Amino acid sequence: MNRGVYTIASGGLAAQARLEAVAQNLANGNTVGYKAQRVAFDVRPLVNFPRPVVDRIAAETVPQLVGIEQTRDFSPGPLTTTGNPLDVAVAGRGFFAVATAAGERYTRQGTFAVDAEGFLVTARGDRVRGDGGDLALGRGGGDVVIAGDGTVSVDGGRVGRLRVVDFGDEPALVGEGEALFAAPPGTTGTPLEPADVELQQGVLERANVDVVSGLVELIDVARGYESYMKAIQRLDEVAKRSIEDVGRVG
């Protein structure tokens, strides 16, 4: 088979992976706490694949895609003031810890509310974890104050402190939905001390997605993907014609 097919197919696979990531990012451009998906590629020369190549220079320079890795960009998103006392943004390091049916998970989506039992919950209904377990604010309402170190008070009385967990400069967290993450097996984060926590009440962290740049990239990647598909189609037509011509000569 023409080695050009492998090169073009590699480009098409790379373009498809980028297209999916860009589309996912744009779809969540307004999702609070969303972290953009990025794509990394493992590209190697086409050496002895699938059989020895006569042209040594081409074999060493023609790229072949051998791996695609989806990663998350955990850089901070822009902060927006809402004035809602139950909206909280992590302005520094770390993630809110929340209790889910699958176990403890982590998020920077601070759109909180109080459920019927008086517990602080996420927009999904998962209970937010405090330093003593699920954080209860009580059913009576009251004036909620969330300090920069995560201390939560209702009507002047301390009810707990938000548990904020850090996973280092390059978190190896696994995405579970729009803005929820799980720690890899065998990995645990480090609960931040009050002095290391930076929270802002009445503020939300928006998605770290530049929608305008994403739209431009989407158009560019879509055109590139279409070009790869057309190139493969042309190679297929050329191969078909060659076979037919050989058949006529014979």
How would you summarize what this structure contains?
By secondary structure, the protein is an alpha+beta fold.
Number of domains: 2
Write down the secondary-structure element order: HEHEEEEEEEEEEEEEEEEEEH
The main sheet comes to: 8 strands, antiparallel
For the termini, the CA-CA separation is 21 Å
Overview of this protein structure:
- Strands 5, 6, 9, 10, 14, 15, 16 and 17 form an 8-stranded antiparallel beta sheet that branches.
- The radius of gyration is 26 Å and the shape is elongated.
- It is built from 3 helices and 19 strands.
- The protein folds into 2 domains: 3-75 and 209-249, no CATH class; 79-205, no CATH class.
- The protein has 250 residues and is of the alpha+beta class.
- Helix 1 (3-27) packs antiparallel against helix 3 (211-249).
- The model is unreliable at 52-61 (pLDDT under 50).
Topology overview:
Blueprint: H1 3-27, E1 37-45, H2 56-61, E2 63-72, E3 79-81, E4 88-90, E5 95-100, E6 103-107, E7 113-114, E8 120-121, E9 127-130, E10 133-134, E11 144-146, E12 151-154, E13 157-161, E14 164-166, E15 174-175, E16 180-182, E17 190-191, E18 199-201, E19 203-205, H3 211-249
Antiparallel strand pairs: 1-2, 3-19, 4-18, 5-6, 5-9, 5-14, 6-16, 7-8, 9-10, 11-12, 12-13, 14-17, 15-16
Helix pairs in contact: 1-3
Describe the structure using short key phrases:
19 strands; single chain; 2 domains; alpha+beta; 8-stranded antiparallel β-sheet; 250 residues; elongated; 3 helices; 28% helix
